[in-house]
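PROTEIN DESIGN WORKSHEET
SECTION A - STRUCTURE
LENGTH: 244
TOKENS:
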């Protein structure tokens, strides 16, 4: 955020949510590299409003605000820099972008650490752009999950067994205990997995840019489930993606 000479606040941000209220207005939630914030956008739902496009969900916008003495932000003007809406017929890209927005809104708050907000902002922007170009939607989703799991403080242990610390003989994953489990420690409540899957899961967490498209849907759904089980946060957009 940057303060202009007129005492206004200028900020480049991604629009995460817009909820209509009163006659033609909306409450908007946006993410800038320094934080999550909400603001009122008056008259924005009138069809001829010049601020309609820059406050659309999935817009990257440059916005100018008036700030009240209590710090409440009111939108003065906005400029759309880039629309990150996927192409109309790409259902998977739509599903994954909904997942990216919903999980950001659930795991970040206005009190979140600015380093976390910057990491999520950068990953959101990069992966929403990649969804627009028609790259594998599940690859974009998995790359985002790798960042989100760290920010949420529940990145899985993928170097050793979460129970005994063994580095060898890894045979499965415990979502509840948060990572790899070795054959000696494996119980029926853990998920036994082939070595190839365990390797891919480790790559998804530590170096997701190295992932290929093979089995990527399974890997994405497993990693997203890990997030849900480890955090206890339910995500509606994930239910939808499982039905595709
Ligand atoms: Zn063990």
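SECTION B - SEQUENCE
RESIDUE ASSIGNMENT:
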């Amino acid at each position: 955020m940057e303060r202009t000479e007129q005492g206004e606040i200028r900020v480049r941000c991604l629009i995460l949510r817009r909820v209509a209220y009163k006659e033609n207005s909306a409450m908007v939630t946006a993410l800038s590299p320094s934080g999550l914030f909400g603001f009122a956008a008056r008259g924005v739902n009138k069809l001829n409003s010049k601020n309609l496009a820059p406050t659309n969900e999935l817009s990257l916008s440059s916005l100018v605000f008036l700030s009240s003495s209590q710090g409440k932000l009111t939108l003065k003007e906005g400029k759309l820099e880039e629309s990150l809406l996927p192409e109309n017929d790409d259902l998977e890209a739509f599903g994954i972008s909904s997942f990216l927005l919903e999980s950001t809104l659930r795991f970040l708050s206005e009190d979140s650490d600015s380093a976390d907000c910057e990491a999520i902002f950068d990953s959101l922007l990069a992966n929403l752009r990649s969804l627009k170009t028609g790259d594998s939607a599940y690859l974009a989703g998995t790359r985002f999950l790798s960042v989100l799991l760290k920010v949420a403080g529940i990145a899985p242990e993928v170097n050793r067994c979460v129970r005994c610390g063994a580095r060898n003989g890894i045979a499965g994953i415990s979502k509840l205990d948060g990572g790899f489990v070795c054959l000696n420690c494996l119980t029926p409540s853990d998920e036994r997995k082939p070595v190839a899957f365990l390797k891919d899961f480790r790559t998804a967490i530590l170096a997701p840019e190295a992932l290929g498209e093979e089995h990527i849907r399974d890997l994405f759904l497993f990693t997203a489930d890990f997030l849900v089980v480890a955090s206890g946060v339910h995500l509606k957009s994930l239910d939808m993606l499982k039905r595709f």
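SECTION C - NOTES
The chain has two domains: 2-83, 91-243.
The chain has a mean pLDDT of 94.
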